Amino acid sequence: MKNETIKYPKKILGILGGMGPAATAEFVNILIRQFPAPCDQEYPKIILFSNPQIPDRNKAILENGQDPTPYLKEGLLTLKKWGADFLAIPCNTAHYFIDSFISEIDIPLVHIVEATIKKAKIFSPEGAWVLSTLATKKTELYGKYAKKENYNLFHPDWDFMKKIQRVIDMVKMGNIEESAKDLKPLLENLWKAKNVPIIAGCTELPIAYKATKLPKDLIISSLEALAEECIEEVLK
């Protein structure tokens, strides 16, 4: 018999992860760390489907590589079949593809870009730099959602973003210290141009940023934004 004094969360979160694995692990860590539960039983049920074999989103957009859409759709439908009440994907670039079919998945998705713009508007009303994969930059994914919210984004040039892509790739390879070493001077130069926070619009970037030891009040993490929105959804 269940203990009636325990508040059991009713909603089950389904996470489609593996894009990349380190970012997925960090997302779950943030989610659990921030969830207001006094004991094991009051944490939410989570179904994690981590599939690193989903085709590369960057290559699909930039190099006409294999389309990840069928794999993303299959993953979300699998989570629904397994009993998820709502969904989250801790990968920004994947949402470019997900936007094309999400209406066919008839359970809610917590959208990482929408969540991040929402957090940015509160955290830095004057605007923010947006850093991401080259593919996310090319698709103007953040610009699209920022425009809906009348939020001001600042965009580094393509050459700068190539260096950010290298930082992202190093995190995916497990080279966290090296990624931080490269990221820190890039951000310091960026802030000389305009001293506003960065939106970490790729889920590997918060991992690199944390390792730089730079101030926490100069980053708007898409991982944290997604986790916060998921917690809100569980507690509704």
TrEMBL record:
Any Pfam family the entry gives: Asp_Glu_race
Protein name: Aspartate racemase
NCBIfam families: asp_race
Keyword line: Isomerase
A single GO molecular function term of this UniProt record: amino-acid racemase activity
Protein origin, superkingdom: Bacteria
Organism ancestry: Bacteria, Thermotogati, Thermotogota, Thermotogae, Petrotogales
Entry similarity comment: Belongs to the aspartate/glutamate racemases family.
Keyword Glycosyltransferase in annotation: no
